[in-house]
Amino acid sequence: MTLYLPRTTTSQIAEALMAERLSVGGGAMNMVLTLVIVTDEADHYDAVRAATEAGREHPSRVVALVRRDPDAEPAIDAEIRRPGTSGPGEAVLLRLYGPLGEHADSVVTPLLVPEAPVVVWWPG
To answer: With a cut of 50, which residues of the chain have pLDDT below it?
Structure first.
């Protein structure tokens, strides 16, 4: 199941991640890392699928960033894949509009797994 959060904020995304984790009975965060994928719309599907497969062996939070129209109003559209449906980890797809695409680090920082390494991947 996927939770869609159009025109959202990072605090709403973090709250939704916690609620989804608790709804499947997993309060603890046993994530080995946060994997940040910086990609475009054309390549995000394959990249997230590959990260999800790797996450079956190494549970992680996957945050895929897709930059959209740089001239649009600043906005974030989020898709959260429920834990358990995409492996033992979490997957979040963020579409960034406007100047937020140039400040993706500010968007990702509140979504990092505490005290876990961060790996960034630029597929393609």
So the answer is: none
